[in-house]
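Last lecture ended with a question: if I hand you only a sequence, what can you say about the shape of the protein? Today we answer it with a concrete record. The protein is Sodium/calcium exchanger membrane region domain-containing protein. Below, first the input exactly as provided, then the predicted structure, then a couple of comments.
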Amino acid sequence: MADDHSLCSRDLIEAAADSCAFARQHCASDAAGLFGSYVPLYYCQLGASPAAFAPLCALLLLLTICCLGSTADLFFIPQLTLLSELLVLPPDVAGITLLAFGNGAPDVFTAVAVANRADFPLLLSDLLGGSVFITTVVLGAVAWYANAPP
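The predicted structure:
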């Protein structure tokens, strides 16, 4: 018999007689995180309406970015400034070294945590995913803005 996670697919939910009950039974998992699974929310409260779900996701994304920005402003930047002053680093060198370490540290600690579980596919996808994102998106954005006229 398949576990509940494998039954949580769009095709099976939409084929069920009661999509809401099916989503609550097979998709509301404790492993979904702090806020739970979004699938029962989509099928039960929002009536499987993409027009209602998309603005909710956009609002959640905006809230997450604002929280990330304020957290970096309150906690990361002051520590970075203090370390660069203690090490007598010019701002550009501090940005290259300390900021890069602060940006990559979560990936390293996640890799260490996953390595203890012996889950190689997750470890590889975490490291390659972060590296590919930095190489393509961030490097592309830096190159784009470096060539922009003042």
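Comments.
1. Residues 50-86 form the longest helix (37 residues).
2. Residues 50-87 form one domain.
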